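Quick review question:
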């Protein structure tokens, strides 16, 4: 069973300024009150349990996560033992040509004091071109069983083989019968070094930069932008004005916001961070 999480619009997240060091072209921290934007869940085993979000920083922050996280269950509840096969699928990400992109994320298992030994969650990460149908027979870029729980492991995967393609990330929780919970947080795609406008392929999909921003957010689109609105984490519309191709965000408090952009009859949503 497929489910779109909250915003179904394709999210492209690019930085087109020339920046030394790393350029973030996609980032998801799952900190919005209504869950991750544009992500899709697929319950492949059909047990009614799938990836979802939870805000329990008192438990998960000491392990190395931050704020709200997403998780998939594999424990026994009311006599039912879950052996999940759950997919969490990212929005489409347009990877630039030139410098190779790198995927990083935090992954871990839920730790309970009464559990001995630690649960050992099993998962895999796949990257597929946009429009591909996941079959389960694809070769993952990473597959492993976590050695212990209560720790946020940082994982890094090269996306060099997908340069110039539009792809989706697939996080699969499976082969984890009667464990507890697999936790995912802070999914980020970066490019090392400078990223110029010649390395992006905007088409009709808006580009928003810089992100994070402190003063202005600039918008670039192959189609005319007719409206742009900014909302805070509670869904409240912010008092900002689109002037030409930029939005003044100086008066916004630091934090996460959602910007929606309308071009013609299409609306795009993307998270921005105000520094």
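Suggested answer, residue by residue:
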């Amino acid at each position: 069973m497929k489910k779109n999480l909250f915003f179904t619009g394709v999210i492209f997240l690019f930085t087109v300024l020339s920046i030394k060091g790393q350029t973030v072209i996609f980032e998801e921290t799952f900190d919005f009150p209504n869950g991750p934007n544009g992500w899709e869940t697929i319950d492949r085993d059909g047990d009614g349990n799938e990836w979802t979000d939870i805000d329990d920083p008192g438990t998960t922050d000491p392990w190395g996560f931050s704020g709200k996280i997403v998780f998939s269950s594999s424990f026994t509840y009311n006599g039912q033992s879950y052996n999940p096969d759950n997919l969490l699928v990212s929005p489409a990400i347009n990877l630039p040509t030139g410098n190779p992109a790198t995927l990083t994320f935090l992954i871990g298992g839920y730790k309970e004091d009464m559990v001995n030994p630690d649960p050992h969650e099993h998962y895999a990460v796949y990257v597929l071109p946009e429009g591909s149908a996941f079959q389960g027979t694809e070769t993952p870029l990473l597959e492993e069983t976590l050695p212990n729980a209560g720790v946020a492991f940082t994982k890094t995967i090269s996306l060099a083989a997908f340069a110039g393609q539009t792809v989706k990330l697939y996080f699969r929780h499976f082969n984890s019968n009667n464990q507890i919970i697999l936790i995912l947080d802070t999914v980020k795609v970066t490019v090392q070094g400078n990223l110029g406008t010649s390395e992006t392929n905007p088409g009709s999909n808006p580009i928003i930069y810089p992100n994070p921003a402190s003063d202005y957010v600039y918008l670039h689109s192959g189609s005319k932008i007719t409206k742009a609105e900014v909302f805070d984490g509670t869904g409240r519309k912010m008092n900002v004005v689109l002037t030409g191709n930029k939005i003044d965000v100086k008066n916004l408090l630091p934090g996460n916001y959602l910007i929606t952009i309308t071009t013609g009859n299409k609306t795009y949503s993307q998270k921005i961070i105000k520094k």
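Why it works: Residues 202-274 form a domain with the Immunoglobulin-like fold (CATH 2.60.40.10). The longest strand covers residues 181-192.
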